[in-house]
Amino acid sequence: MMTITYSCSLINICSVKEFHMRILILGRGVIGAQYGWALEQAGAQVDFLVRKGGSRNYADTLELHTYDGRKKRSVDEVWPINLRYEIPAEEVYDLVIVSVNPEQIAGAIETIAPVAGDATVLLMGNTMGNPLSRLKNLSGLSAEQFVIGFPGAGGGITDNVLHGILHGIIQLGVSEKKLNKREQAVKNLFESAGFKVSLHRDIDGWLVNHYVLNAAMEMEVLKRGSFEKVVLSEDGLTSMMGNVKKMIPYLKAKGVRPDMAIVMMSILPARLLAGLMGKTIYKPGSPAYDAVAYNQYQVGYAVREIQADAKRLGVNIL
C-alpha cells in the first residue's frame, strides 16, 4: 500500500525536508555516495545497501573530499553513513537509486527487487541507450517503476576516502510528452536538494551519444594506462577527439543524431580543442582533473560493446 509520505512526494506539494523521504542506494560507489550525501543534507533519510563480506571493507564513515558544483565550493568532511547489509521485508522506501556499470545493471535489479516494493527506481548510469529496452527480466518489478537518468558526478573511493566532483545538474528522461508522477517526484527531489534537472524526451539518444564519448575516452585510456595520463597529454586528448569523429558513421547507422558536443569535436581542430581542455577543464588541480585522477573505473566494456555493435551494422570504427 502506498504511504502518505510517498503520496506527498508524487504530487509534489512539499519539499524533501517536509516529508522526510526514505531513499535506498545500492552500493556505496562514488556516484551514489555523493548523491546520498547531498540528499541527506537536504533532509532525506538515506541508506546504503551493501554486500556483507567480500573484498571491500566498509567503514561507518566516509571521508569526503569533493567539489560541490551546486554551491561552487569544496567539501572536506567525515560523513557518518547508514550502511545496511539486509533490509527487513516490512521496511518501505520511497526511492531506490541504482548507479552501476552497464554490465552490472541486470544483477543490480535482481538485488534490489526483493526490497524495492512499490518504490520508484532511479537508474543513473553510463549505458548504451535506455537500459530498460534491453533488459529481458526485471525480477518482478514493473517497468512503470523505473525512471532513467544520468548523473553529473565522478571521482573515486580508496580506503573509505572519496575524492570527487558533484556537478549541479543531472539529466532525466521523460517517458511521455509530459512527466509522469514518478519522474515528477524525482525531479522535485533533486531540485529540492539544489540541483538543476535537464529533461530529455529522447533519453535513449542522449545516452547513446554520451556512451560514444565515453568509449572514445576509454580507447585512449586502454592505450595510455589511466584517465589521468590521457588528460595530461595533449596528444591523448587529440586522439580522443579523433576517436569521436570515427564514431559519427556508427551513430548515423544506429539512427541516432550526433549531439552538439560530438559535432563540435568532429569539425573543430582537435589539437586546438585539446590544448584548451588541458588549460581549463583538465588543468591540474581543477575539480574535474582531480575527479579524473582518482577515477578507478575499469575501462574496456563500452569499447567492446560499441565495436561489436558497429561490426553488426557494417561500420568500421577502428
From TrEMBL:
Domain Ketopantoate reductase N-terminal as annotated: residue spans: 23-131
Domain of life (superkingdom): Bacteria
Organism: Pseudobutyrivibrio ruminis
Transmembrane segments: none
InterPro entries tied to this protein: KPR_N, NAD(P)-bd_dom_sf
Protein name: Ketopantoate reductase N-terminal domain-containing protein
